[in-house]
Amino acid sequence: EKGGFEHFMLKEIYEQERSIFDCMRGRLNAEAGTLTLGGIHHYQEHLINANRIIIVACGTSWHAGLVAEYMFEEFARIPVEVEYASEFRYRNPVINKGDVVIAISQSGETADTLAAMELAKSQGAIVLGVCNVVGSSIARLSHEGVYTHAGPEIGVASTKAFTAQLTVLAMIALKTAWHRKTLSEARFLEYLCELERIPAKVAKCFELNDKITVISELFKDARNFLYLGRGYNFPVALEGALKLKEISYIHAEGYPAAEMKHGPIALIDEEMPVVFIATRDSSYDKVVSNIQEVKARGGRVIVVVTKGDALIPKMADFVVEVPKTCDAFMPMVSVVPLQLLSYHIAVMRGCNVDQPRNLAKSVTVE
Ligand code: M6R
Q1: Whether residue 129 has its Cβ less than 6 Å from ligand 1
Q2: What phi, psi does 53 have (nearest 5°)?
Q3: Whose CA is nearest to atom 16 of ligand 1?
Q4: Which of 22, 150, 193, 332 gives 20 to 30 Å between its CA and that of 161?
């Protein structure tokens, strides 16, 4: 049942090449220049004309929502707010005519996300779902939606569902941008081609497994970890930290790299490893300065870089190279080494990676 893997989590990490491909299958055809999302056909107009998009989700799905915020703003120029479902539902949120709510959930059974959707619906919002489990409560409660088709995810730590959510959200954002004419036809086609290349780029990351195993051995006894990234890689930093804390029980924090100087920098010493996600994007130079600041304070750094980076290896303790892609799709690639890092550290610490203590796969309580 684990297909030769020791744990479901590892199996699911390695399934991502396939699951991202499956998620695009029958929807995206770069050669023909087509992107069809039948699941949201009836409410497509609402999305195209939305004044604002409100994303509600929890945990890893909330991190996918943060990436989607950047995508919708960059591609489709629609303002986006990303809400923890649990906060949204207990406030008295302002929902205006013309707002579209997108609920993201792997299980489709998360109680807080369901309640947030009910609240939004009761105030007249159109609610679209991005779910993995077909026929789940969230899928049924949505007006329409797009399934992630990642296949069953057994490990409590979400991995392949996350990258499939990013794939679906990228497709929705691109389709919306195409209708709104906020992306030129040429750029749109370039993005479709690049999205089709993501499964192969994810597969490339599996070649890092041995190196990440060695790094894990060196850092497995750390008591704290900091994860830093900027732009599209900021949610990846949050996701890397969540993966580590939930399965290895090491305290980890994710921060936008530029926020370091507003507080977390006080924590830096030899005992506080810092994982940077510093791929070649528009914030690269700034993140390089942050790495230097950590090194100057005796911190040990592990950095996810774009293949061929010549600068960061000179300052970092360890680098892991991922293939180049555009800024918006980098999270699907750059998260993979972080999933592997948390997995190996947790295994080395003797933790039950598939069923960590105190956690359930679907959180059906409030
Ligand atoms: O099924 P959902 O996507 O709605 O679940 C949301 C969170 O409970 C979930 O992502 C949780 O944070 C995972 N254990 C993260 O790995």
Answers
A1: no
A2: -115, 135
A3: 157
A4: 193
Question: 94 C-alpha to center of ligand 1: Å?
Answer: 26
Q: ipTM exceeding 0.90?
A: yes
Is 90 exceeded by the pLDDT of residue 265? Answer: no
> 339, 320, 270: which is closest to 300 by C-alpha?
270
Residues linked to residue 276 through DSSP beta bridges, in sequence order: 228, 303
Helix (H) or strand (E) holding 284: helix 284-296
Locate 219 and state its tokens: 């850092």
- Amino acid 53 reads I
What are the angstrom distances between the C-alpha of 228 and each of 225, 252, 256, 299?
10, 11, 6, 13
Residue in 63, 66, 110 to alter for ligand 1 test, most ligand atoms within 8 A of Cβ: 110
Q: Hey, which of 236, 242, 363, 366 would you mutate to test ligand 1's pocket, going by the most ligand atoms within 8 Å of its Cβ?
A: 363
Which strand (E) or helix (H) includes residue 226? strand 224-229
Give the strand pairing for 126-131 and 274-277: unpaired
Instruction: Provide mean pLDDT across the span 294-316.
Output: 96
Q: Please answer whether residues 95 and 124 qualify as being in contact, where contact means their C-beta atoms are separated by less than 8 angstroms.
A: yes
Cβ 245 vs Cβ 275: under 8 Å: no
* CA atoms within a 13 Å half-sphere pointing along the CA-CB vector of 181: 0
First to last CA, the chain: 32
- Give yes or no for residue 58 CB within 6 A of ligand 1: yes
Instruction: Express each pLDDT in 196-241 by its tens digit.
Output: 999 999 999 999 999 999 999 999 999 999 999 999 999 999 999 9
CA of 222 to the centre of ligand 1 (A): 25
